[in-house]
Amino acid sequence: TPLPGAQERQRLLARRPRGPRRWWRVAAAAVLVVEMLERAAFFGVAGNLVLYLNSAELKWAGEQASRAALVFLGASYLLAPVGGWLADVYLGRYRAIVLSLLLYLAASGLLASTAFPDGRSSFCGEIPSARLEPACPSPGCQYTSRATYCAPTLYAALLLLALAASSVRSNLTSFGADQVMDLGRHASRRFFNWFYWSLNVGAMLSLLVVAFIQQNINFLLGYSIVVGCVGLAFFIFLFATPSFIIKPPTGSQVSSMLKLALQNCCPRLWHRHSARDPPSAQLLPDQRLPQPGPSPKEDIANFQVLVKILPVMVTLVPYWMVYFQMQSTYVLQGLHLQIPNIFPNCPTNRSETLRAQGSIYKIPEAWLLLANVIVLLILVPVKDHLLDPLLLRCKLLPSALQKMALGMFFGFTSVIVAGILEMKRLEYISHNQTVSQQIGQDTYYAAPLSIWWQTPQYLLIGISEIFAILCSFPSPLGLEFAYSEAPRSMQGALMGIFFCLSGVGSLLGSSLVALLSLPRGWLYCPEDTGNINKCRMDLYFFLLAGIQAAAALLFIIIADRYERAAKGPAPQSCPRRDSG
């Protein structure tokens, strides 16, 4: 977002109450607390979503639960440009955040209502009774897949949650930056430092506390905490309203880019559309009254930049297919590995003891997501303050594109490690070496391999995120390539496209799971409802690795052409209004 001019800055400051400097601290602190609570709520839903859908109350098959998790994660990124566009054109960031938190509260309440019997019967109806079917002894016999109970209500709740979370994500960061913009760039950098840490603190608290409650006590209490976090965030944001700088909507670059894309791709359709416009809309750029934001000439220059950058960003989509596995199929794999008790002196996982004692607390499978969070909190500042300066002094610092290629390599390695672990797990299963373990109210038949064997694949995904996504510390939205190559007025639009493409990657991963769940597919195992012991998820992981490897080769070719073109003579561009 461009820095405002002197007049706009004074006008915005006039919206803040008169008083000492503590007002900006109150405003910034409120934004940070709201971000922490919102991330705690989001991870409270995403962290154990596969386990919830796979539980005895809902009885979704493993591939159905993974597919729903990928749809939720994909939609939470894919819909990010919608919330940003509505805020820029109609609502303004403040009202967009308030409405998003209200939607968040309603959707999380709907999800929590499905976690107890009366709520499920009200919103979903009664569980359909299973049909009695003859046995299926022959290997080629086709089983009938069960319909997913409560699917319309759950998908509606998850999509509404995704829309609310994406709108908060796309608006809260820049709204918080508005609160400290009059204090200089150093204050903005400090704010983004704290914003990034608030995000991760919220995720850690949710994974440590909410995930434990959901797995070991019940999901109703866990989802009630999610509702409480959203409600608390909403009231804190409202109470801090008098201290906020509130900017009115100023228009969106997305609209300009869509018009230019229509004009270039479909000129006939564009001429028909422009013929209906009023005469004032058909004036030449120099004849129009000056408007805030980029001029029409700058829009054309920005569109040319977008055309150059977009192919590079599109090749990241397969990386996102791999990245979102850690909250879907990685979780499903972990449920079928031996999960130790939190208190080692408790009885072991063997069957009769477990059935007699329902109060044994196990390490939540979602805690492995903490490996991703911890590696980010530790390695990002190490990279920023130690590794990058050292490489810069040695003139070995890689470019942003080279870092992204390195991130793809670590993502490829993560899914290969997951495939090898799954192969080893299936070897134990094929020799009938299984462990019956109780997780909540559900029994899983796991291989006698510790769940800690999953740690390397989570760590590798975390390292890949540092290079492929968080290329510039400290911003959680740090897309170094887009920020270094695009004009400042295009950075917001590029971040929207970046989130949108990441959502496309997650949805493509969900589509791939659906395709492989068809009869004769690797993930088709209806006779093994609730477990994946007769599926071939190892082949699914290796297929993802192959897709990522092919995309990485394509990325290297496109990036090489882009860098060679960038070394040529730079074209003259219009002076930008937002250069300040």
Automatic annotation (TrEMBL):
Keywords, in A-Z order: Endosome, Glycoprotein, Immunity, Innate immunity, Lysosome, Membrane, Peptide transport, Protein transport, Symport, Transmembrane, Transmembrane helix, Transport
GO molecular function: dipeptide transmembrane transporter activity; peptidoglycan transmembrane transporter activity; symporter activity
Gene Ontology annotations of biological process type: dipeptide import across plasma membrane; innate immune response; positive regulation of nucleotide-binding oligomerization domain containing 2 signaling pathway; protein transport
Keyword presence, Transmembrane: yes
InterPro entries: MFS_trans_sf, POT_fam
Subcellular location, record wording: Endosome membrane; Lysosome membrane
Catalytic reaction list: carnosine(out) + n H(+)(out) = carnosine(in) + n H(+)(in); glycylglycylglycine(out) + n H(+)(out) = glycylglycylglycine(in) + n H(+)(in); N-acetyl-D-muramoyl-L-alanyl-D-isoglutamine(out) + n H(+)(out) = N-acetyl-D-muramoyl-L-alanyl-D-isoglutamine(in) + n H(+)(in); L-histidine(out) + n H(+)(out) = L-histidine(in) + n H(+)(in)
Membrane topology: Multi-pass membrane protein
Main localization, broad class: membrane
Entry annotated with the keyword Membrane: yes
GO annotations of cellular component type: endosome membrane; lysosomal membrane
Transmembrane segments: 23-45, 65-87, 94-116, 193-213, 219-240, 305-323, 366-383, 404-421, 494-519, 539-559
Pfam families xref list: PTR2 (PF00854)
Family designation: Belongs to the major facilitator superfamily. Proton-dependent oligopeptide transporter (POT/PTR) (TC 2.A.17) family.
Function: Proton-coupled amino-acid transporter that transports free histidine and certain di- and tripeptides, and is involved in innate immune response. Also able to transport carnosine. Involved in the detection of microbial pathogens by toll-like receptors (TLRs) and NOD-like receptors (NLRs), probably by mediating transport of bacterial peptidoglycans across the endolysosomal membrane: catalyzes the transport of certain bacterial peptidoglycans, such as muramyl dipeptide (MDP), the NOD2 ligand.
Name used for this protein in its record: Solute carrier family 15 member 3
Organism: Capra hircus
